[in-house]
Automatic annotation (TrEMBL):
Alphabetical list of InterPro entries matching this protein: DUF6526
Record's keyword terms, sorted: Membrane, Transmembrane, Transmembrane helix
Native organism: Mucilaginibacter ginsenosidivorans
Record protein name field: Uncharacterized protein
Pfam families registered for this protein in UniProt: DUF6526 (PF20136)
Positions of transmembrane segments: 12-34, 46-66
Amino acid sequence: MKKTQTYATHKRIVPGFHFLASSLLFLGAIAAIVNIFRHPPYTGGFVSAVLLEVMFIAGLLLFWYARQFALRAQDRAIRAEENLRHYVLTGKLLDARLSMAQTIALRFAPDEEFPELAGKAAVENMSSEEIKKAVVQWRADHHRA
């Protein structure tokens, strides 16, 4: 059974990814920089030390962009889902003034609160945090990447 989700507990942290992998890549990049300074140019090991640093930088970039690409794709899916949900509930698409962040925050509102909160968010230009805090009955999202 999934834990009850609230505003305070809705953020998803994957310790192996967010803490372990990021720390290992960061520490490895720092160690590789130190290794470059231990092997001055035109001495044995300098090219290997530089290549090692390049690999760690590539790993950090891959780590960052893999997460960003997954979240971007998921954000687009959420926008489509919430637009469809709004259409089903009201017969109208979401207000075009709503930003991606606002639409994503609205996914936590249950059907009973969703149309009114969506309208209020568009008119008052509420931040995503304000929208989440305005939700009375939290609608959990346990499938966030």
